């Protein structure tokens, strides 16, 4: 690397900050700039002369004065939150109030908005900085290394480590030292590679919390990929480690070179350099590995980014997605107070459940679908001595059979092909110290039943492919809407397991047995909706009381959502009630409906499409046929010329309803709205009538 003739001095407020920033700078520009650093609270004062001096914050300007000698340029670094430690934030429970502590109002605000942008929104962050009046004494604080600024009443401090220097400051440094021209590409690719590493961490943490935006998912998946960026001159500016491995070309031999000198595969080269299309996907075999290659432009000047995804990994990712299903309800934090209703049977069930909660025993909850089994399970957990432990809800009907076992009990490395290195904890281990809610227990296979029985009896488990006995301390609450006794008769459910589960028993009343509660529930759901001031015609309530509500409270909620979407003038009227066919049929005939749906004889939803909605379906169908993008604006335009005119806003709410009914789906970007297969069938049926 030759002699380092350029130098800079970093002055930080604390030793921790000094170490972090010194590391960061060395990683990015240490190759060609000598970096000295001091922290004003730990080092003896040494005056420096003829130097570029970087201050970690405006706050240390005063103390820094003693260090600054003759002929120095002083620069205060701009800093961004260090996302490497972001997973710590996820240890705080959802919805918790947390102080975000930093030196200035601006830096606090900046950090809070970057959290938002990144989809980290599970906490209520309250800004805090020196001098801020803060009445409420919050118990938890997050701070980027500013431990001294945390107010004394805080009991738990989460230190996410000092913020890092942002790219603009690094560019300024290069500029001041006259290195910008020569080093900018190299530096920006290094900066990007550190940031992508951060994004990956961020992604993992996010995934953990199962709270990950679509956008971020792309970033996360992105960092397992090879990434190549090319500037408008065709020179490579980013070439990450994964890509080194994939293409078997060292980064050193790629950065700064022209693509044509690096990528020897002719078709791949053509694919990358084809700028006629903004975006393209291709499938390539390189060094006998298969890749999905995606190319897109990130700015009008023509910076091209190409990602390389290992095709075999894509399959693994799909599996991962399925796993996410299980974790739903990680945060289902219902309490008994959330269970609405005054019917004596509900009240006494709640009373019993409260008592059962205090015990350690296994509970079986029986109730039709939508009666609130999960609600009860969660309330029981939070009213139990385990309320500080985790509550995990597993829905077996949502899980592919072959995943159930490894999900529940975990596996050891090498248990099967595709098993992760180091093995994986199952949900039972993850729920340790807490409660696991096993929904639709009637759906599990006999094999899983046998394992489950062992856990209940022995309070210990073996991972799949493992031989180490792992003790588990988990309370089980199971639920079913099936008749387990008849499953037992058919030999599909083990009798011994049944008795283990049913140590304590709760039967949840169906909604049709407590119709008095319908009014309460409706009131409650309206309060929770985004239109809390909506009124209900008296007649509506009377009508609603006449239904059988086979889908129970969930169905009532769906019905209300429908009515909220179609109603006008802030009032739900009788005509807003969906037609009879919208409602769930009794259990037996539900099966028949499913069969009819499959054979596409008579989709049951179509009859209750009111005229307006079915016109809308027709408009979408016609637009789709002409190959036009079906946007809300376009639909609104069409309604202007015939029938009843709908504003864009009205179109939106109706589309949402159609989407809920499964008739249309929203596609991203240019494709707009589309009829689903089901929607098309419904359209044709309607035409034939
Ligand atoms: N008594 C109640 N008060 C308020 N909301 C309720 C009540 N009962 C159920 N709900 C709501 O109804 C919906 C369905 O409840 P939940 O998921 O607990 O039912 P479930 O019996 O577990 O259904 P399934 O067996 O189909 O999974 C949820 O949105 C829940 O919040």
TrEMBL record:
Asked whether the UniProt record includes Plastid among its keywords, one would answer no
Q: Which InterPro entries match?
A: AAA+_ATPase, AAA_lid_NorR, P-loop_NTPase, PAS-like_dom_sf, Sigma_54_int, Sigma_54_int_dom_ATP-bd_1, Sigma_54_int_dom_ATP-bd_2, WH-like_DNA-bd_sf
Residues covered by the Sigma-54 factor interaction domain: 339-565
SUPFAM superfamilies with a match to the protein in the record: P-loop containing nucleoside triphosphate hydrolases, PYP-like sensor domain (PAS domain)
**What keywords are annotated for this sequence in UniProt?**
ATP-binding, Nucleotide-binding
- From the UniProt annotation, give the residues forming the signal peptide: none
Q: What Pfam families does its record include?
A: AAA_lid_14 (PF25601), Sigma54_activat (PF00158)
The record's CDD domains line, in alphabetical order, gives: AAA
Q: What is this protein called?
A: Fis family transcriptional regulator
Organism listed in the record? Sutcliffiella horikoshii
Classification lineage = Bacteria, Bacillati, Bacillota, Bacilli, Bacillales
């Amino acid at each position: 690397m030759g002699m380092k003739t350029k130098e800079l001095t970093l002055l930080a407020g604390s030793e921790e900050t000094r170490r972090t920033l010194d590391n960061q700078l060395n990683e990015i520009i240490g190759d060609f700039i000598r970096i000295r650093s001091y922290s004003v609270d730990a080092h003896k004062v040494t005056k420096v002369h003829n130097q570029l001096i970087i201050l970690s914050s405006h706050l240390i300007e005063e103390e820094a004065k003693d260090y600054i000698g003759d002929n120095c340029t002083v620069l205060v670094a701009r800093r961004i939150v260090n996302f490497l430690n972001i997973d710590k934030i996820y240890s705080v429970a959802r919805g918790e109030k947390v102080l975000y502590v930093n030196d200035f109002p601006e830096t606090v605000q900046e950090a809070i908005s970057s959290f938002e942008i990144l989809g980290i929104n599970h906490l209520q962050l309250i800004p805090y900085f020196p001098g801020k009046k803060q009445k409420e004494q919050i118990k938890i604080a997050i701070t980027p290394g500013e431990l001294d600024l945390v107010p004394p009443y805080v009991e738990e401090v989460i230190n996410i480590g000092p913020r890092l220097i942002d790219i603009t400051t690094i560019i300024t440094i290069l500029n001041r030292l006259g290195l910008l021209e020569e080093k900018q590409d190299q530096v920006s690719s290094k900066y990007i590679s550190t940031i992508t590493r951060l994004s990956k961490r961020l992604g993992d943490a996010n995934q953990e919390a199962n709270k990950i935006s679509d956008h971020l998912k792309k970033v996360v998946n992105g960092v397992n990929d090879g990434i190549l960026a090319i500037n408008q001159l065709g020179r490579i500016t980013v070439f990450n480690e994964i890509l080194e491995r994939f293409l078997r070309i060292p980064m050193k031999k790629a950065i700064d070179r022209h693509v044509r000198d690096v990528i020897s595969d002719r078709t791949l080269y053509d694919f990358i350099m084809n700028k006629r299309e903004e975006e393209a996907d291709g499938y390539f075999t390189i060094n006998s590995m298969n890749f999905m290659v995606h190319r897109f432009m990130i700015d009008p000047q023509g910076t091209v980014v190409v990602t390389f995804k290992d095709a075999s990994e894509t399959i693994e990712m799909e599996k991962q997605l399925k796993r996410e299903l299980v974790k739903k309800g990680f945060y289902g934090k219902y309490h008994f107070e959330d269970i609405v209703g005054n019917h004596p049977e509900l009240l006494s069930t709640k009373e019993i459940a409260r008592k059962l909660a205090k015990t350690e025993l296994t509970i079986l909850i029986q109730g039709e679908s939508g009666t609130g089994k999960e609600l009860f399970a969660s309330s029981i957990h939070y009213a139990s001595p385990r309320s500080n432990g985790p509550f995990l809800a597993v829905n077996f009907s949502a899980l592919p059979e072959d995943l159930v076992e490894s999900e529940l009990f975990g596996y050891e490395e090498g248990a099967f092909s595709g098993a992760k290195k180091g093995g994986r904890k199952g949900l039972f281990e993850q729920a340790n110290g807490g409660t696991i809610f096993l929904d639709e227990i009637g759906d599990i296979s006999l094999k899983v039943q046998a394992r489950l029985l062992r856990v209940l009896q022995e309070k210990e488990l073996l991972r799949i492919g493992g031989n180490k006995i792992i003790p588990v301390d988990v309370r089980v609450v199971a639920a079913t809407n099936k008749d387990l006794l008849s499953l037992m008769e058919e030999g599909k459910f083990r009798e011994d397991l049944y008795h283990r589960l049913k140590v304590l028993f709760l039967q949840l009343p169906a909604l049709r047995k407590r119709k008095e509660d319908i009014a309460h529930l409706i009131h409650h759901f309206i309060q929770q909706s985004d239109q809390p001031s909506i009124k209900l015609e008296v007649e509506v309530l009377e009508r609603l009381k006449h239904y059988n509500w086979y889908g129970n409270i969930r169905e009532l909620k769906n019905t209300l959502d429908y009515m909220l979407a179609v109603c006008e003038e802030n009032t739900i009227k009788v005509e807003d009630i969906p037609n009879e066919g919208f409602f769930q049929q009794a259990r037996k005939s539900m099966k028949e409906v499913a069969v009819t749906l499959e054979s596409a004889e008579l989709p049951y939803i179509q009859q209750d499409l009111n005229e307006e909605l079915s016109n809308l379906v027709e408009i979408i169908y016609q637009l789709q046929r002409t190959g036009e993008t079906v946007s809300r604006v376009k639909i609104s335009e069409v309604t202007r010329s015939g029938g009843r005119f709908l504003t864009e806003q009205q179109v939106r709410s109706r589309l949402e309803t159609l989407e809920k009914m499964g008739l249309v789906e929203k596609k991203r970007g240019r494709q707009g709205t589309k009829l689903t297969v089901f929607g098309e069938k419904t359209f044709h049926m309607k035409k034939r009538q």
